[in-house]
């Protein structure tokens, strides 16, 4: 304990030296604090000039953050991973382009680029203006567009007024873009076969005419009035029936066979029973034909035989047998309305059936 205490016992001269050293340290620190040129001075940062410089620095930083990198024209066929990333493309979109290029194929238009990469419309609209394709690609497109434009303009310039297509010559038809020598001759031949076009839809049946060409035809021509000499449908041949748009070889034969079975058409509604005839085709038929009623030998409903009844349209064997049985039970029919009460009788055809019968 005495040894430890002896370490903290100082002489008067030693104590005076220690105090001098402490005073010297504080003095040096005070001088350093007040004379250091880099020391913080609150008045310095409060000055107007420093604040102005700081505002300029902040503005430049903000502009740098909001400024997008400048883009230059580039060939989309050579987009690298980094380039695609800076453009805003996803990894999948970049990979699709690289897979396409790996097949030694090239993108030649912005539309083709979108088809291959499947980028969104918004991204395509943003980067497409910077696409730069080789001159041979752009020049080829310009030449093709110029050629089409000049050709179309030249043909359109010849269209002064519409012409009746039923009077148009082969040369006039060939002026329509898309119609050559064969098609123009084919149109005239089909028109002759029909006896003249009566509706626009009839032109659709000309073999080889595409919809876009037909559209151009009606910008140049119109369907004029055709004088049609109507024919008695009960005397019409298969060839005459085939001239109606919508009636081919099978339908024309079917009409003639059904007419023979009836002994001749009596009213227009009978044509509706020919299988396969559409309402719009039947409407065209009556523009070319009329009905001259054939001479019908009516049979007496109350004394005719089963065989005679079967010859009446719409009456088959079972129905004829039922009519004969009912006639016996009723002791003869007094009017045609009684027929409609027979089971399975076609009441909607009663008016036609009456044309072939009479009651005595």
UniProtKB/TrEMBL annotation:
Pfam families: HHH_3
GO molecular function: DNA binding
Domain Helix-hairpin-helix DNA-binding motif class, chain residue ranges per copy: 171-190, 201-220, 239-258
Annotated GO biological process: DNA repair
InterPro entries found in the cross-reference section: Endo/Exo/Phosphatase_dom_1, Hlx-hairpin-Hlx_DNA-bd_motif, RuvA_2-like
Signal peptide segment: none
Domain of life of the source: Bacteria
Protein known as: ComEA protein-related protein
Annotated organism of origin: Kordia algicida OT-1
Lineage: Bacteria, Pseudomonadati, Bacteroidota, Flavobacteriia, Flavobacteriales
């Amino acid at each position: 304990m005495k040894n430890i205490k002896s370490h903290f016992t100082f002489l008067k001269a030693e104590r005076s030296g220690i105090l001098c050293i402490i005073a010297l340290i504080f003095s040096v620190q005070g001088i350093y604090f007040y004379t250091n040129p880099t020391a913080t001075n609150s008045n310095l940062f409060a000055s107007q000039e420093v604040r102005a410089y700081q505002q300029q620095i902040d503005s430049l930083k903000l502009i740098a953050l909001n400024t997008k990198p400048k883009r230059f024209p580039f060939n989309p066929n050579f987009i690298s991973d980094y380039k695609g990333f800076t453009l805003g493309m996803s990894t999948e979109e970049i990979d699709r382009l690289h897979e396409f290029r790996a097949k030694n194929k090239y993108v030649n238009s912005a539309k083709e680029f979108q088809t291959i990469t499947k980028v969104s419309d918004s991204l395509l609209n943003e980067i497409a203006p910077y696409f730069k394709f080789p001159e041979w690609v752009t020049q080829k497109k310009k030449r093709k567009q110029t050629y089409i434009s000049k050709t179309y303009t030249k043909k359109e310039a010849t269209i002064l007024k519409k012409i009746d297509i039923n009077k148009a010559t082969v040369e006039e038809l060939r002026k329509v873009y898309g119609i050559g020598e064969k098609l123009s001759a084919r149109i005239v031949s089909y028109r002759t076969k029909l006896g003249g076009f009566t509706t626009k839809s009839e032109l659709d049946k000309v073999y080889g005419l595409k919809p876009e060409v037909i559209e151009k035809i009606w910008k140049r021509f119109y369907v004029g009035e055709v004088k049609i000499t109507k024919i008695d449908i009960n005397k019409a041949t298969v060839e005459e029936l085939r001239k109606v748009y919508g009636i081919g070889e099978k339908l024309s034969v079917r009409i003639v066979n059904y007419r023979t079975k009836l002994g001749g058409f009596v009213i227009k509604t009978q044509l509706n029973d020919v299988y396969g005839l559409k309402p719009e085709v039947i409407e065209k038929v009556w523009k070319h034909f009329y009905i001259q009623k054939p001479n019908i030998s009516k049979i007496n409903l109350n004394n005719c035989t089963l065989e005679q009844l079967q010859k009446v349209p719409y009456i088959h064997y079972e129905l004829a047998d039922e009519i004969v049985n009912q006639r016996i039970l009723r002791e003869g029919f007094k009017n045609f309305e009684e027929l409609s009460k027979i089971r399975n009788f076609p009441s909607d055809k009663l008016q036609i059936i009456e044309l072939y019968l009479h009651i005595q």
